[in-house]
Amino acid sequence: MTEKIVNKLPAPTWNWLKMNAAEISVPEQLKKIEGEAKDGVLHFSVRPGENVFFENEIHAREGEEKTIIMDYTSQDADESAAGFFGIKTRVILEKGARVHLVKIQMLGKNFTRHDQTFAEISDGAEFHFTQIELGGAKNFVEMISDLDGENSHLKSDISYYCADGQELDINFVANQRGKKTRSLMNSFGSLAGGAKKTFRGTIDFKRGSSASSGSELEEVLLLSENVVNKSIPLILCGEEDVSGDHGATIGSVSDEIFFYLNSRGIKKAAAEEMMARAKVMRTAALIPNESCVEKIENFLDKIFSGKNAEENP
After folding, report:
1. Nearest-CA neighbor of 99 among 77, 72, 69, 75?
2. pTM of the prediction?
3. Given a cut of 60, is residue 311 above it in pLDDT?
4. Quick one: which of 165, 161, 195 has its CA closest to 299?
5. Which of 23, 24, 40, 170 has the highest CB neighbour count under 10 A?
6. pLDDT digit string (tens) for 89-121?
7. Contacts of residue 118, Cβ cutoff 8 Å, sequence gap at least 6
8. What is the DSSP string of 60-98?
9. CB 6 within 8 A of CB 114
10. pLDDT tens track for 238-279
């Protein structure tokens, strides 16, 4: 295994926060694989114990519109075997192009994954990035977008449910260089059962990006006392005529709300499941493929049926 530094912040914070970057163990040998295209989805089914990687490039010509959906699953056999999956996607949007890239992660419980997305956005182009995080043991997710063109736009939406000691490390960066660029980052998720999550969201107004705007919004639901959440919304500014804002809502559900729901016949476990599902499905609703949304719902069913079985043997 090789130790690799990933998900670096563009501008380091104090080292004691331990959020400037993450460290990942990468196997020495990785086998290149190809996805199976079916019904408009590029599907990957990885065997437990496999160490694999995939690279692709998405090129949208001037004025072209594309929707690309990628989903990652692993076969059920021998779920205890660990595996590694590396993904790198480069997206090039020419003038006026529109691309919606969707990545859905439903790997087995012992997989480590490193997922990178890089986007180059030209004049008047729009890049929408949607990501769902449900499986895996350790997931390192990075999205870096260069808004080089005038009036170029970025919208990113990520949702997750992490439990049973899962770790999720996220680094989203919007480099806004062109005039009148816009970026919007949304993150919604829930943590339970010793899960750990780090979210780095950076909006970087470069010199020359006048009349640009950027916004970050994060909502985290804490469902256990032993979870760890780290959030660092970062706005860097090298230009005067810009507008940037960020907001975060992080907390648990109050006893008063649980008491109210219980009085309506909804037990605490059912209420937590309902809220966690809602955060994931809020983003899943943006996916223009009914079968993919159904697969997400089925994977959530599997997660919560196993959780309920543990709590009610």
Report:
1. 69
2. 0.93
3. no
4. 161
5. 170
6. 999 999 999 999 999 999 988 899 999 999 999
7. 88, 89, 90, 91, 143, 144, 145, 146
8. EPTT-EEEEEEEEEE-STTTTS-EEEEEEEEEEE-TT-E
9. yes
10. 999 999 999 888 888 877 887 777 888 888 888 899 999 999
Do 246 and 235 meet the contact criterion of CB atoms below 8 Å apart? yes
Q: What is the Cα–Cα distance from 239 to 236, expressed in whole angstroms?
A: 9
Query: Burial code of 226-257, b = ≥16 C-beta within 10 A, e = fewer?
Result: ebebebbbbbbeebeebebebebeeebeeeee
Query: d(Cα 261, Cα 42) in Å, to the nearest integer?
Result: 41
Quote the longest CA-to-CA distance of the chain: 61
Alpha helices in the chain (DSSP H): 255-263, 268-284, 290-311
Amino acid identity, residue 283? Answer: T
- Please determine, for residue 313, whether its predicted confidence score (pLDDT) is greater than 50: no
Please state the φ and ψ torsions of residue 173, each to the nearest 5 degrees: -135, 130
What is the token pair recorded at 123? 């004049």
Pick the closest to residue 185 from 151, 209, 219 (CA basis): 219
What's phi and psi for 208, nearest 5 deg? 105, -5
Residue 137's CB is within 10 A of a number of other CB atoms, namely: 17
Q: Is 36 left (phi over 0), alpha (psi -120 to 50) or beta?
A: beta
Greater confidence, 14 or 67? 67
According to DSSP, residue 275 is labeled H
